[in-house]
Amino acid sequence: MTPSELLLIGAGGFAAGAVNAVAGGGTFFSFPALLAVGLPPVVANASNSVALWPGSLSSAWAYRRELVAYKRYLLPMGIASLLGGITGGLLLLAAGDARFAALIPWLLAFATALFAFSPQLSVLVKKIRQRGDGVMPAALRLHAECAPAMPNSALQHRHGDKSAPAALAAAPINAAAQSPADHGAGSPAGWPAQLLVSIYGGFFGAGMGILMMASLAIGGHEDVQHINALKNLLSAVIYSVTVVTFIAAGAVSWPHTLAMLLTASAGGYAGARLARRMQGPWLRRSVIAVGGALTFYYFDKARG
């Protein structure tokens, strides 16, 4: 590699790691850089996945505090990511990128629009889910009304305040425990949606983060920082299994991969720290802006 090629690969890797941590779509920086230095499309895509893998791990680690409440939820979603990543990687090795390239602009346009309107769609999903879960809150309210009253002395002893009985009586019972993991974690569409996104991510990966953030938002997750944390960890799972698949198939160009790997890791950690400091609305706007720019670029490239 020439110094200019090394510089191009390093810059593409850093930008990809940072953008993946903030909004997704970093492949659009690293994959073209590998193509520009002369790698074939399939080898460039495989090498790109291996190079961005440590960056995805460092991004997930930077969000470890936000993921604590999602331990039980992450197991089924992790399995979906594992199966989808393996499937997508095998499809890439069997078919190559050419047939899929024509669909990329349309998928990105769809994903960007999906994320932009995800708050409205999330409200609709919640209404549908509440209709099916309405029996449980009613049952809990009936139990509260029929339960025997606790003696005032016991309440006062427990709370140290004579107003405790009135306070407890006035406090409404919330059927949905206010843990962050409860919001959207039980969506029936969450697992198959993650499986499909993971297949796409294993096959090509460009815009995978945007697709995943859109599916998580529509699944009921409202906090953008939590969506970003989940996206980073599940992306790391997908990258991990596709890396093993591509290495086993001998589809990786190691000189180019190693040159990109270090800068992508640094970019991933820097981007994750930046994303946490950004306010929710600004992070959402940045996701939409990145998706719109990438969609325009690939439509323009398809026409040219």
Plain-language structure description:
The protein has 16 helices and no strands. By secondary structure, it is mainly alpha-helical. The chain has one domain (3-128, 182-303). Helix 5 (71-95) packs parallel to helix 12. The two termini are 28 Å apart. The model is unreliable at 135-184 (pLDDT under 50).
Summarize, please.
The protein is mainly α.
Q: List SSEs in N-to-C order.
A: HHHHHHHHHHHHHHHH
Overall pLDDT score:
74
| Portion in beta strands | under 5%
User: Structural class, please?
Assistant: mainly alpha
The counted number of beta strands is 0
Instruction: Provide the number of structural domains.
Output: 1
